[in-house]
Amino acid sequence: MIALGGSIGTGLFLASGSAISSAGPGGAILAYSAIGLMVYFLMTSLGELATYLPDSGSFSTYGSRFVSPAFGFAVGWNFWYNWAITIAAELSAATVIIKYWFPDSPSLLWSFLFLALMFGLNALSAKGYGESEYWFAIIKIVTVIIFLVLGTLMIFGIFNGKPVGFSNFNLGGSSFHGGFFAFIGVFMAAGFSFQGTELIGVAAGESENPRENVPRAIRQVFWRILLFYILAIVVIGFLIPYTNPNLLKTELNNIGVSPFTLVFEKAGLAFSASVMNAVILSSVLSAGNSGMYSSTRVLYAMAKNGLAPKMLGKLNSRGVPINALIMTTMIGMLAFLASLFGDGVVYNWLLNASGMCGFINWLGIAVCHYRFRRAFIAQGHSLDELPYRAKWFPFGPIFAFFLCMIAIAGQNTGAFTGASIDWYGLMVSYASIPLFLVIWFGYKWVKGSKLIPLDQCDLTTHNREN
């Protein structure tokens, strides 16, 4: 359920509308399909790693063992920063959403209340986090299923009118719109939408039976993406013309024109805006809750491995890394800036910062899996020893690596394709890249870290940290 809920969020409920408006339904489907295929290969790579070596440190542990300690250090801190900042971003989003009902309420109050809720759920126990994520996921899944069923009935004229045919889907004689750069823009948005599926790797470190449960979750990733994203875009594309100006307004401060809301209103459900607002609120709180859990666990594992201050490796009586949780929560308090500088401005800054870090995390997964499999063979092991084996190796991680590189390079093509270079846009979009490189090569220079030869990579599985 964590894996399922992790792939459903504002990227589906909000960004899908602007994607269809920019590239047409055909362009949106192609972009989301390409990213979905990349995520599928990344998840199979992560599945092979997480079932062989279940560890709460996940990316940091794999990078340190199969690439170099410097790479593991940089990937671990990048992952922590990514999700710690995501907490702040999602809290800022929640304050904007809640003002749909309480427009004159202070942002500071809501930021504090939501942050306290997330901290409490994570401070209880790992079970507390898992239980809350289960119910957050249920809300999102039920909403999407109702949307798909109702939308399909409307397409065929079974509910509320006559069949719509292909008039909206092929508006103007084609389902593609906007050209190549519009497609690239949707490609970026789709990549951000799918970020969160990699949390399976962190949760595996505390799951009851990772060698059975993780592969089962991994195997369903492709079908989840197909069902919840591709079919949703198909339904929206059939029912709402991509020229509808409301599709351009699907932002956090305009929930009333979410594409889901537009379809529900078309079906005659007058209360749809309030319902979708509540669902989107649960989505952003779910993302923030997941971010707090995963970043706390990675920070704890890094402390245990000597890559972070030792005090962050302390567990309380309930098995929660409380010091790492407190430090992560302090970063989440950046959301309080929303009340000082304006909700939308802060949210967009934090969103851009965390989005690029997510793609860097995915690059790390592809590199770690490629190195792990080669080390596994180089040290005389048989593939039959693997509890779960990723298909299509080495094509899978190589394909994912290069697609991630394209996504990173094209993060903000508009910044340098205009009449003049948008230096502010470049800084906002790409600042995470030099930050990651400074951390990586800085550790390498200070500690003298080198690439680990394949025959010396640590493949032992007995020292699992929970």
Describe the secondary-structure layout.
Elements: H1 2-6, H2 10-52, H3 59-66, H4 69-98, H5 107-124, H6 126-155, H7 179-194, H8 199-203, H9 210-239, H10 259-266, H11 272-304, H12 322-332, H13 338-341, H14 343-378, H15 395-409, H16 414-417, H17 423-430, H18 432-447
Helix pairs in contact: 2-7, 2-9, 2-14, 2-15, 3-4, 3-14, 4-5, 4-11, 4-12, 4-14, 4-18, 5-6, 5-11, 5-12, 6-9, 6-11, 11-12, 14-15
Describe this structure in words.
The structure is a single chain. The chain has helices at residues 2-6, 10-52, 59-66, 69-98, 107-124, 126-155, 179-194, 199-203, 210-239, 259-266, 272-304, 322-332, 338-341, 343-378, 395-409, 414-417, 423-430, 432-447. It has 466 residues and is an all-alpha fold. It is globular and about 65 Å long. It starts with a helix and ends in a 19-residue tail after the last helix. The mean pLDDT is 83. This is Lysine-specific permease. Residues 1-447 form the Amino acid permease/ SLC12A domain. Keywords: Amino-acid transport, Membrane, Transmembrane, Transmembrane helix, Transport. It comes from Paenibacillus azoreducens.
Beta content: under 5%
Give the proportion of residues in helices.
Answer: 55-70%
Tally of strands: 0
Structural class estimated from helices and strands: mainly alpha
Q: What count of helical segments does DSSP give?
A: 18
Protein name: Lysine-specific permease
Subcellular location: Membrane
Organism: Paenibacillus azoreducens
GO cellular component, one term: membrane
Please provide a brief summary of the model.
With 466 residues, the chain is an all-alpha fold. The chain has helices spanning 2-6, 10-52, 59-66, 69-98, 107-124, 126-155, 179-194, 199-203, 210-239, 259-266, 272-304, 322-332, 338-341, 343-378, 395-409, 414-417, 423-430, 432-447. The longest helix is centred in the first third of the chain and has 43 residues, at 10-52.
